[in-house]
């Protein structure tokens, strides 16, 4: 029986790349499914509607009634939630709607949450040291608690999905890089933010602590979502619910080395005064310069975390990019930022508003 897949955040960098990958498939269980995509604006809806094979739904995901109507009317079986890990209500509305869908159809429904790896670092409030995605992450996040909106969303997803009879998975997203294949946003926010800020100050800055956060190329991350979706469609058993965590990374991003290469690239283009990298005088100044929330900037920009991915490899994930290949490609990343994305991202507007 044909199943219907809904991708939220389909106009974004990751969601758009997943959508493009799914639509490009010529033979697979995904090819045999109907693909739906949610967008926020009329402009996004019109642009995505021109793509063959996608059914566009313009909906406010914070409106519970609208979400329920969209999921039930379009008979959605699987939701890949890429839109936001910071707004708990969005995930709640989607899971509740999938619960209604399950009751109406009698068939199993699935929810894939997109979290972040930064939560599992000391800077992100993780006190337990090394963590594998096979560990009891849900129980430990409940012990930590606190106001972090992403952690609150993670806990809600697991608990509410279980209560609604919805099978849930949680993909922890690292630093993602590379040019995406979506129709709308082509780049992640990280390197374009560093490039934009450096040009504005005529100087490249780094933090006083070198983080080595987990990282993944967008194509490798998309392949993980595709693998999860394929196995869901084929009804293959996989860790889910409280055990359903998947760390979506395969190498590290050495922050100081990245900034050194960004400085070299920008100086060669005459966009900064010299090729040296200075240290930010304060985290407050850095947060203001990059339009990032000061409360979370340490976790976002200096975290490392002792994470060990296991589950993704167990189900057959085979990423292709390495740290060496990534560092060698930084100049291309800078050029892509200059060509494609020199506009401030609105990704962290919710957190910025909460600080005020």
TrEMBL record:
Gene3D superfamilies for the chain: NAD(P)-binding Rossmann-like Domain
Sample GO molecular function, one term: aldehyde dehydrogenase (NAD+) activity
GO cellular component: cytoplasm
Chain ranges of the NAD-dependent epimerase/dehydratase domain: 5-231
Pfam family, one: Epimerase
PANTHER family with a match to the protein in the record: NAD(P)-BINDING DOMAIN-CONTAINING PROTEIN-RELATED, PROTEIN YEEZ
Annotated protein name in UniProt: NAD(P)-binding protein
Organism: Zopfia rhizophila CBS 207.26
């Amino acid at each position: 029986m044909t199943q219907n897949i809904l991708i939220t955040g389909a106009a974004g960098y990751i969601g758009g790349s997943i959508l493009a990958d799914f639509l490009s498939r010529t033979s697979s269980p995904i090819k045999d499914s109907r693909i739906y995509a949610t967008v926020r604006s009329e402009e996004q809806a019109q642009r995505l509607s021109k793509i063959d094979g996608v059914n566009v739904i313009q909906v406010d995901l914070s409106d519970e009634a609208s979400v329920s109507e969209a999921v039930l009317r379009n008979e959605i079986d699987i939701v890949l939630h890429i839109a936001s890990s910071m707004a708990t209500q969005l995930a709640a509305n989607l899971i509740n709607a999938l619960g209604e869908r399950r009751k109406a159809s009698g068939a199993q429904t699935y929810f894939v949450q997109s979290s972040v790896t930064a939560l599992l670092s000391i800077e992100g409030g993780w006190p337990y040291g090394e963590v594998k995605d096979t560990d009891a992450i849900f129980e430990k996040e409940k012990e930590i608690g606190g106001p972090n909106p992403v952690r609150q969303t993670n806990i809600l997803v697991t608990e509410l999905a279980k209560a609604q009879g919805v099978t849930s998975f949680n993909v922890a997203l690292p630093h993602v890089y590379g040019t995406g294949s979506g129709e709308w946003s082509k780049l992640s926010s990280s390197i374009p933010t560093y490039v934009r800020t450096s040009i504005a100050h005529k100087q490249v800055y780094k933090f006083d602590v070198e983080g080595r956060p987990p990282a993944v190329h967008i194509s490798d991350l998309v392949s993980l979502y595709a693998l999860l979706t394929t196995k869901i469609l084929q009804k293959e058993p996989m860790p889910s619910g409280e055990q359903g965590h998947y760390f979506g990374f395969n190498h590290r991003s050495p922050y100081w080395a990245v900034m050194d290469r960004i400085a070299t690239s920008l100086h060669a283009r005459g966009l900064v005064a010299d090729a040296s990298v200075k240290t930010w005088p304060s985290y407050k100044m850095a947060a203001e310069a990059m339009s990032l929330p000061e409360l979370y900037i340490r976790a976002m920009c200096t975290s490392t975390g002792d994470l060990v991915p296991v589950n993704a490899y167990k189900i057959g994930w085979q990423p292709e990019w390495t740290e060496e290949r990534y560092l060698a490609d930084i100049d291309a990343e800078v050029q892509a930022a200059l060509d494609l994305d020199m506009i401030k991202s609105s990704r962290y507007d919710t957190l910025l508003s909460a600080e005020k």
